[in-house]
Give the backbone structure.
Amino acid sequence: MCISNILDLAHKHWREVNTFGLHLEDLKDLLEVGFTNAFFTFNQRLYWQIQGVFMGYCPSPPAAIIRLSTCELNSLYTDRHYIGNPILKIYSRYVDDGGFIAKTKEEALRVCALIAEADSDRNIKWDVDFPGKGEYTAFLDTEIMITEEGEVRSRYYRKPMNKGITLHYKSHHSESTKTAVARNYYKVAREVSSDTSQREYSLNKVDSILMKNGYRSPRKYDTSSTTRRSGKKKFSDDGKVTACIPYTTKHDANRIRNYIKSRHIPVRPIFTPGKTLKSTLCSSRPLDKTQCTMSNPDLCKVCPLTNMGSCSTKGVVYEVTCGRCSENVKSTYIGENPSQPSI
């Protein structure tokens, strides 16, 4: 059903998107090949997933969103005069987090049941949160409460199991990157807060997160509360080429920026953390370096072609020779693949 929902949506907007010369039948064939051939390994054994869309496949998230959206259209947005389904005035959903306002608990459960019943595969299950009197209910990074007077209050929210880990101040990143991370926290906290008291609560929560990650006096990054100078002109980025440069020290980064600006070089430097000592010495998946993903190197098509005898090696530089060219003129292609090689 998920593939048919995608095809229906594609047919409706076919003239509005760039199809790269593909037809609707071509899209159907690609989706069937991709969604019906989901294989994965677990505990050195190969499995075939036959139900639902699988993680790690790029079309899976939008496919799940389209499927859920179709169920909503067939359940919530129907004509109440003919079917009697409730039409909600407020309904919002982001990926798999939905929120709406119901008068009673029974009405909320009925709305969730309507959406689940619209799924013929019966794969949709909701966990419903019912806030009590004077309690907040969470939606993404915001928690909301409606008072008895009908006033809506909102503030910044983090899940209780969230450890508050973010980019540490002592990490090997440029000062501009750390500043941007801290400013974004305060920006979000201000945007989701409904009034002054809620805003102060949200800002204090951000202060606690940043202080745990080594930021001293973190409130100085809250530039939203101050007026920025409007007379300062920004250096134009039009026509610039992005250059990724490994970050070493703050002094070196400023010297590079000043040199590029003084020479009017059309380059926009972006400083990356580069290869750290931790990434060099530590690995979360050590078996990838020695184990064949098929668990049988004799049957694998990649392992015999590698010098190290493993198809799980990443960052492989490979050379492909054309088998149809004559012996006098051989065409070869040399490339590099950041992921695992496959044939």
Remarks:
- The longest strand covers residues 241-246.
- The radius of gyration is 27 Å.
- Helices lie at 2-12, 24-35, 60-73, 105-117, 175-191, 196-212, 250-262, 277-281.
- The chain has a mean pLDDT of 80.
